[in-house]
Specification:
The chain is mainly beta and 266 residues long. It has a single domain, classed as Beta Barrel (Porin). The chain contains 2 helices and 11 strands. The chain has a 10-stranded antiparallel barrel with strand order 1-3-4-5-6-7-8-9-10-11. A hairpin with a 2-residue loop joins strand 10 and strand 11. The longest helix has 23 residues, at 2-24. The chain is elongated and about 75 Å long. Residues 1-8 and 20-30 have low confidence and may be disordered.
């Protein structure tokens, strides 16, 4: 019976891991608006088709190793919303990222003779808010922004486990809890116009520094194409690494994959 309980717990651990991973990728900087004294706004909905690989451990749950493709993530996603907003005037810009995710999953295991059965259900909700300031340190043939800010994560978990022996009444155990932390981060953003509305984009940041995560960093390389003055399509590749270990919860995960977005500038 112990083996089946562990399997159910591992499935729930994987669910929590998935949501934390989704949370971390909502940190992409919005596309920079043109410089000048005019106040400019841009809104960028986007999606990251990420693969995730690493380990997570929460409380008494066993450490779970994960290697999930994007299609696996979609299987347990109930609802998700993510977008980036940037406000810029002259060299100064302010960035905001917001995200809400809701995922759920269930698992069931039985003994070979069917005498013992264990089932587990979990719902995980994640809210992420990131705020940053960006200062344009260079603007000639290319643009370079220095970025500094904070990223807040909160996760709420509800877990129900039912066990039944020899077809008799089931015994239920319910658990709920939440975990939150704040990561400061510093970064650089590079935009290089090429030709005909096409630009190369690069971004890198590092944070945590033991305040929230022990350490976190990400790198991005992509292309942007101005469809018009108001609409900009983006496509590229991102890698993200997070290492968090505090109060009985550890999360050591690498994420990478292609991303796509559409910026609406005003």
């Amino acid at each position: 019976m112990k083996v089946y309980i562990v399997n159910a717990r591992q499935r729930i651990s994987a669910l929590a891991l998935l949501l934390l991973t989704l949370a971390t990728f909502v940190g992409a900087p919005a596309r920079a608006a043109d410089s000048g004294d005019t106040l400019r706004y841009s809104i960028t909905p986007y999606l990251w088709a990420t693969r995730m690989k690493g380990d997570v451990k929460a409380g008494r749950l066993p450490e779970t190793s994960m290697d999930m493709k994007f299609s696996d993530i979609l299987d347990v996603l109930d609802f998700g919303f993510m977008t980036a907003v940037e406000i810029r005037k002259g060299r100064l810009g302010f960035l905001f990222d917001g995200m809400y995710m809701n995922v759920s999953d269930s698992a069931e295991a039985r003994s070979a003779d069917g005498a013992v059965s264990v089932s587990a259900e979990a719902e995980v909700k994640q809210t992420m808010l990131a705020f940053a300031a960006a200062w344009r340190v260079l603007e000639e043939r290319l643009s370079v922004d220095a970025v500094g800010g904070i990223r807040y994560n909160k996760i709420d978990v509800d877990v129900d486990i039912d066990a039944r022996l020899f077809g008799g009444p089931s015994g239920s155990v319910g658990r709920s809890g939440d975990k939150d932390w704040v990561d400061p981060y510093l970064g650089l953003r590079l935009i290089v116009p090429v030709a005909g509305g096409l630009s190369l984009v690069g971004y890198i940041d590092a944070g945590g520094f033991g305040v929230g995560s022990d350490f976190t960093w990400q790198g991005l390389a992509g292309l942007e194409y101005a469809l018009s003055e108001s609409f900009i399509a983006s496509f590229g590749y991102r890698y993200l690494k997070v290492d968090y270990d505090k109060d009985g919860f550890s999360y050591d995960m690498a994420n990478d994959g292609l991303y796509a977005g559409m910026t609406m500038a005003f």
